Amino acid sequence: SKGVTPLMRASAGGHVEAVRVLVQQEGGGVDGVRATDAQGWGAVRWSVERGQPGPLLVLLKALPEAEAVVMGRRALLRSAELGLVACVRAVVEGVAWGRSLLQARDE
Fold it and tell me: Is the Cβ–Cβ distance between 43 and 59 less than 8 Å?
């Protein structure tokens, strides 16, 4: 597993609290969320591929909005393709455009 970081492993394993701690640590943060392994997968992709909505939500909320939108779109498409309803929900809750969709639906 070349280039797989602790953040990626925690995300893939569904370890929400570990993901929170790693995102808050110096060297984790946004750069840690952006990092990719040898396959080109980052922590967001790992959390989707393993069906882990908790870490996905934490990761998307850690990113600046513009990046969260881009990563969120990719995660949303892949989650929908895999039929991962909880991950779809996490993307919708984790990205502002998704939250605005929810608010419009509720009005």
Answer: yes
* pTM of the predicted model as reported, rounded to 2 decimal places: 0.86
How many other C-beta atoms are found inside a 10 Å radius of the C-beta of residue 106?
Answer: 6
Number of other residues whose CB lies within 10 A of the CB of residue 60: 24
- Element spanning 73, H or E: helix 65-82
Identify the residue whose tokens are 């995102």.
23
Q: How far apart are CA 60 and CA 31, in angstroms?
A: 13
Report d(CA 107, CA 12) in Å as an integer.
35
- Please tell me the distance from the alpha carbon of residue 84 to that of residue 32, in angstroms, as a whole number: 24
Q: Residues 67-96: pLDDT tens digits?
A: 888 899 899 999 999 999 999 999 988 887
Contacts of 81 (CB under 8 A, 6+ apart): none
Q: Dihedral of the CA atoms 13, 19, 25, 27 (nearest 10)? A: 60
